[in-house]
Design a protein that fits this description.
- By secondary structure, the chain is an alpha+beta fold.
- The chain is about 25% helix and about 25% strand.
- The protein contains five helices and 15 strands.
- It has helices at about 5-35, 100-105, 190-195, 210-215, 250-265; strands spanning about 40, 45, 65-70, 70-75, 80-90, 95-100, 120-125, 125-135, 145-150, 150-155, 155-160, 170-180, 200-205, 220-225, 230-235.
- The strands form five sheets. It has a six-stranded antiparallel beta sheet with strand order 3-4-5-6-13-7.
Length: about 270
């Protein structure tokens, strides 16, 4: 190979490497911009650890996708749809209610339990599980209403605190409820129970808030990397950082600002 051909090949490889490198930086800038935005829907506004709408999956915990339907914030948890009433982001608490209790009621065709991944959620103090048992043979009927189960009308519905009850039942559904003023007064029919469940319940998020706070304090945008670890997206910086690197010019500007503040303290205006 002559020198001119070798030189051309070297230049070609160099240009190719540059093109391969640029998208990585550009992608990180895109994630910094996208993850700096908030999820907005009705009265709900949220950033990390949530994602959805304009916030891509890399902006939040996989289980915490939010979506906006008719200006109502919703999310799926363990295959059950929930309405999101409140997000107390500083406390890491969600107040949610089962979406099926709004539209389908207690005679849901799926009879799905409210279960939560213990790595992501934990119950807030003041709540306990309430179990609705359907079609029990040897249990007292506590709500006189009919549910069609497997195309058969069954009038036996039994409610118990906790997640254990009569063994010979067709179905059961576990729902968290508040223990405040328990048992709830004047709930004697299906409609009253449905209204009670619509009030929802609270769960606490188990997230690495400390790492995210360090990222925010360095003007970064918090997100989740490919191995589901908290990461910090920064402009013009590679992924996987814990915090963003402040450019030297910004450090100089900050130092000058501190010097000016010191001067004001030493020579106050009269």
């Amino acid at each position: 190979m002559n020198s001119s051909a070798f030189s051309f090949l070297s230049d070609f490889v160099l240009v190719l490497l540059l093109f391969i490198h640029v998208p990585s930086s550009s992608s990180n800038d895109d994630l910094f911009t996208a993850c700096s935005k908030k999820f907005e829907c009705g009265d709900i506004s949220a950033d990390f650890p949530f994602w959805g709408n304009d916030r891509p999956r890399a902006c939040g915990v996989p289980e915490l996708e939010l979506r906006c339907e008719d200006n109502i914030a919703k999310m799926n948890i363990s295959q059950v749809a929930y309405r999101v009433f409140e997000i107390y982001q500083h406390d890491g608490i969600l107040r949610i209610a089962r979406d099926q209790d709004y539209f389908v009621g207690l005679c849901s065709p799926q009879f799905m339990n409210s279960t939560f991944n213990p790595k992501v959620f934990e119950y807030v103090e003041g709540y306990k599980n309430l179990t609705f048992f359907y079609g029990c043979k040897d249990a007292p009927t506590t709500i006189p209403f009919t549910c069609k189960i497997n195309e058969v009308n069954d009038q036996s519905v039994y409610i118990q605190v906790g997640d254990t009850g009569p063994r010979e039942c067709n179905r059961s559904v576990i729902v968290p409820v508040s223990t405040t003023n328990w048992p709830p007064p004047q709930i004697r029919n299906m409609q009253a129970w449905e209204e009670y469940l619509k009030k929802g319940f609270e769960v606490r998020l188990k997230v690495d808030w400390k790492a995210c706070l360090e990222c925010f304090n360095s003007s970064g945008a918090c997100g989740i990397d490919k191995v589901n670890q908290t990461t910090c997206y920064c402009p013009n910086q590679s992924r996987g950082s814990k915090t963003c690197t402040i450019p030297s010019r910004d450090l100089d500007r900050s130092k000058n600002q501190y010097d000016d503040d010191d001067d004001l303290l030493e020579n106050p205006l009269e």
